[in-house]
Amino acid sequence: MRREIEKSDFVVVVITQNYVQRFNRQTGPGIGSGVRWEGALITADLYHSRRERAKFIPVVLRAEDISLIPSPLNLTSWFVIGEKADADITRLTRVLLRDPGELPTELGVSASSPGVAFHFDGIHASSEVDRAFAVAGQGDAHGAIRQLDALLQNHFGDERAYILFLQGVLHHKIGEVSQAQACFQRVIETSGHSSLLESAVQRLQVLFAEFQAHFGEGGPVDTATKWLVNVKRGKRREVWKTLTRELRLCLAQDWIIANEGHPNLIPCDRDELAEALAAKNPIHPLGKHCLRSKLQVFQDHYRRWDIDRWGAAGNPRRIGLDYELIVMAPADEGILVTRNDETLPVYAILMRKIGFDWLVANLGPAYPIPGWPPSAEEIPTELVSFKATDI
C-alpha cells in the first residue's frame, strides 16, 4: 500500500461512513486495519510533504456526505460523483487526466484516435484539416491553430464552421477561454449543421461555467480583488486570515528572524511563537506587531494597484488541482492596455482552493515553504508565463 501510494500521481479516496470510522480509528481491534494503516500513510504524507499539492482526492456519492470527509482530507478539493448510473464524473476525470480543457465524448463529439479531427455526418473537410489538427497531438496546439487559421480562407459554409470548431477545441484545451468562446460563437452564427451547432453550444456552456468559476463571486479573481481592497484599506486582520496557513507561517518566521534580537522575542521559543503568530486570528501579544509589519509589506508591494484602474488579465491559469495564478494588470474601462509600447506592469497572486474557499497562497508564482529561513519553490515557467495574447 505504501509503495503504491508513493508512486501514484493521484489517490482517489471514496468517503463513506464506514471508511471515516476506520480512518479515524473508531472501530474495534482488528476491524478496518487496512483503512487505519492507509489513513496513517495519508495523514503523514499530507502533513510532512515538502509542499501541499493535492494528491489525495476525496470523493463522495452524495452532497450531504461532504461533512464526512475527515481532516486533513477536508483541506483539499473534493468531488460529488453521484451514486446512479448517470453520475457526473467529468470534473474528476479532467483532474485525473491532467487535462482540464478536454471534454468527454458524451458532450457531442468523439475522435477515432488522438490528434484526428472530430467527425460530423455530412461535413467533409479536406485531409489538410485533419493533418493540421493532428499537429496538436504532437504537443504544438498553437501551431495547429495557426495552420487551421490559414485553411479558413479556402473553406466555406459548414466546412469553415467545422475548422472554427476545431480551433475552439484547441484554444480551450490550452486554457485560452476567451479565444475558444469566440470560435464557438462564430460556429453558432455561421453554421446550420444541427450536430455541429449542438456541440458548439454545449462547449460554450462549459466555458461559461468555467468563466463564472474563475471570475464570479467567491472565485479566485473575486477573492484576490477583495483581498487587495483590504490591503489598501489597512484591514490587517482580514488580510491575514485570507492567507493560507503555509504563507502565514512563512511570513511569521520571516518576521521573527528579522526581529530576533529584540528583547521581547529573546525569551520566546521561535517555533512556538511562529505557530502562534501564524494562527488565523493570532492572540499572542506580539501578533499585532507582526501583522502591522506584514501589512506594510503588502501595501508597499501593491502600491500601484487600484480597483478602478486595474483588472484580472487573461485566462485562468490553473496549476494542478488546487492552485490558480491571478495576474492583475492596468485596465481602461475594463480593457487591459499598455501605452507607448511600455512593458505591461503586472501583479501576480497565487491562489489556493481549500474546501469551498479560495485563499492567497503567495505574492507571486511560487509555493511557499516554511522553515528557518522560509523559502519558496518557483512554479515552472511554462505553467505561469504571461503573454500579450492572454490579454
UniProtKB/TrEMBL annotation:
Domain SEFIR: 1-90
Highest rank taxon of the organism: Bacteria
InterPro entries per UniProt: SEFIR_dom, TPR-like_helical_dom_sf
Protein name: SEFIR domain-containing protein
Organism: Streptomyces murinus
The organism's taxonomic lineage, starting at the top: Bacteria, Bacillati, Actinomycetota, Actinomycetes, Kitasatosporales
